[in-house]
Amino acid sequence: RIDSALLLLFRDPSDLSTPIGPKWFSQAVVEITTLGGYPVLVTLVAVVAGFLIVSRYYGAAVFMLASIISGTIASHFLKLVYDRPRPDVVDHLVEIHTASFPSGHATMSAVVYLTLATLVVRLVDNMAVRIYVIAVAIFLTFAVGMSRIYLGVHWPSDVAAGWALGATWACLSWLTVSGLRRLRNRR
After folding, report:
1. How many CA atoms, within 13 angstroms, populate the side-chain half-sphere of residue 156?
2. Three-state SS sequence of 72-139
3. What is the pTM of this model?
4. d(CA 49, CA 54)
5. If residue 57 lies in a helix (H) or strand (E), which one and from where to where?
6. CA dist., res. 145 & res. 182, Å (int)
7. Residue 112 and residue 104: Cα distance in Å, rounded?
8. Do 98 and 79 form a contact (C-beta atoms < 8 A)?
9. Is the CB of residue 134 less than 8 Å from the CB of residue 74?
10. What is the enclosing helix (H) or strand (E) of 18?
11. CA 21 to each of CA 10, 14, 29, 112, 126: distance values in angstroms, whole numbers, following the listed order
């Protein structure tokens, strides 16, 4: 019931097929949701990997790719295990063909944006830059997840699970690399 109630907050009560807000806002949300889609994320990861390799940050490139690829596998595996249907309470504003839980867009935006933020934070000493980068990563992750609910293609619990999984995955990846780095420095 909570999922349905939250989903309905984004719809006109007199016509559940109509999202709240002006038409331009609905189009903007469709565009925001692409920031968590594979074409954008794969392009971004490829560009950053190329930069890290050209800059001779090979370890950072391997860390980033391993973290993001393994996070993608975990997300897909959970979708197969749970096989939760998409919400049927409201019309979907975009076409989707995969299972609903966890939200792949929410998971992968958290994995990618937070992993990239941890890389930048390690490469920059300026605290203001670090705070800005983490804030942008969190904002992008939040915006993508909210867009999925607004578009009616995910239950809010799908998005919350995706955020939790993606943030946990990025944190565990960062902790693993930090632990390996400490072990290497002791030798």
Report:
1. 10
2. HHHHHHHHHHHCCCCCCCCCCCCCCCCCCCCCHHHHHHHHHHHHHHHHHHHHCCCHHHHHHHHHHHHH
3. 0.87
4. 9
5. none
6. 34
7. 12
8. yes
9. no
10. strand 15-19
11. 9, 14, 11, 29, 39
Residues 6+ apart with CB under 8 A from 120: 129, 130, 133
- At 176, list the tokens: 């693993």
Tokens of 53: 């390799």
Among candidates 100, 71, 63, 77, which has minimal Cα distance to 179? Answer: 63
Tens-place pLDDT, residues 24-80: 999 999 999 999 999 999 999 999 999 999 999 898 899 899 999 999 999 999 999
Place of tokens 């594979």: 38
d(CA 112, CA 167): 9
Question: CB-side exposure of 89: number of CA atoms within 13 Å?
Answer: 23
